[in-house]
Protein: catalase
Amino acid sequence: MSDKKLTSASGIPYVDHEDTKGVGPRGPLLLEDFILHEKLAHFNRERIPERIVHAKGSGAFGTFTVTGDITKYTKAKLFSEIGKKTRILFRFSTVAGERGSADTERDPRGFAMKYYTEDGNWDLVGNNTPIFFIKDAKKFPDFIHTQKRDPYTNCKSATAVWDFWSLCPESLHQVLFVMSDRGTPYGYRHMHGYGSNTFSLINKEGEKVWVKFHMRCEQGIKNFSSEDAAQMKSVDADFAQRDLLESIDKGDFPRWKMCIQVMTEQQAKTHRFNPFDVSKTWSQKEFPLIEVGIAELNENAENYFAQIEQSAFAPAHIVDGIGFSPDKMLQGRILGYTDAQRYRLGANYEQIPVNRCPFAVNNYQRDGHMRIDGNGGKSPNYYPNSFSDVRPDPSYTRPADQLDSDVADWFDRNGPGEDDHYTQPGIFFREVLDATGKQHLIENIVGAMSGITGPKRAEIINRQLCHFFRADTGLGMGVAEGLGVDVTKVMDQMPRTEI
Structure:
C-alpha cells in the first residue's frame, strides 16, 4: 500500500478519481463533485499561450566551463578564471512554425542560452545564423506576419514572404543563409549558434569594447538537403527533439565552444559599415575569434513543460561586465522579450523554478498573478525606507555611455554606411558555399519562389531577382533560369551602375 495519498490540488485526500458523483447508477451528475470541476477546469487551462515566434523547441541543461582568459575585456564573474563552471540551460527552436510544426522546416533556428551566474541569470538569445532579416525592431511585427498564416487563406503565403523580402534589401544576407542547406540543419546538435546582435563587455577599469558571441559546434556541421528534410518531416516531425534527447540519455553530450569577436570603440567609429547592423557580419580576418569556454549539455529536463516550455529568455537579462550596444534590433528586443514573457507566463515568471536565479534575489516587487514565494513577508514594499537592508550596491554601477550625437530623429536605414546590402551576400555565395551548396541554394530559392501567386507575381519575382543579381550575377542567372524569367526584363529594372 503506497503512503502517497491521492489528493486534490489543495491537499485534500479523495477516493473517486474516475467516477463522478451522481443520482443513482444512471442518473444526472451532482454539482457538488468538486473533483470533477477541478480536473476539467485544470485540463482546460493546461496550455499556456505559445510563443508568438520560436513556439516549438527543445532544451537541456548542462555546464559552461571557462577555457580562455578574457578578463582584460570583462569583469563578468562567470568568466573570472580558467576552469570556472556555470550551470546552463539551452533552448533550441524553429522560428515561424506553431508548436505542432515539423522540426525540419526551412527556417532559422533559435539558439537561446541561460547562464545561472552568481550575479544573476545571463540570457544570450540568438539564432543559428550570425545575421537577421531586418535591422530595426520596428519592422519585426510586419516581418513575422509574413512568416505566419495569411489572414484570408489561413495558410502560409510565399507571396507575402517574397513580397516583403523583395521590398527590404537588407534581408538578402539572411535570405541566402536560410535558403541554403543551413536553413535545414540536421537536428540541433550539428549547428553553430550566435548571439547575433552586438553587445559590449566592460572590464574592472570600466573600459568597454564591442563584442559578438559565437557558439562553435564541436559535433561538426551537418545539414539536411531540401529533399531529405521533407522526407524526415513525413517520417518524424519531432526529429530534432528526439535526436537531442536520446543523445544526452545515452551519454553522447553535445558541446559548443564559445568564442568572441572584439572591436574597440575607436574601430567601430571608423569601420566601413555600421558594426551595430545585425544584417552584417564582422570579418573574422579583421576581428579573429577568441576562445572563451566550452558549453556541454549533459542533463535532460525531468519534465518538458515545467523546465522547457516555461523557460523564459530575454536579451534584457545581462550581468555585471556585459552590456548592450546601439544595435537597433537589440534595443527593441530589450523591451519585446520581457514583455512577451510577462504576457505568456505572468508578471512573476522569473519565480518559476527554471527561470529563478539560484542565488540571492532581493527587490521590492510584490503581488501579481502566481506569486509563489513569500511575497516579501511583512517587509516594506517601497524604497527608500528605514527598515529594510536591501539597498543598491554602488560597486555594480555601469560606466556612462558617450553618445556621438545629440540629434533625435528617424534616420534612413539606407544612409551612408548602411546601404550596402549586397557585398556580404555575394561573398557568402561565392566564397562560403561549395559547388553543391550553390546549386542547392538556387534550387531551394526557385522552389520557394515558385509558390508566389497573384497579379503581383511578376513584379515581386523581378524585384527579388534584382537583389540576387546585385549580390552575384551567377546567383541571379541561376534563379532566373530556374523560374523561366527573361533576364533582359530584370536587367531593365536595375540601375546601370549595378550591372
Observations:
- The chain is about 30% helix and 15% strand.
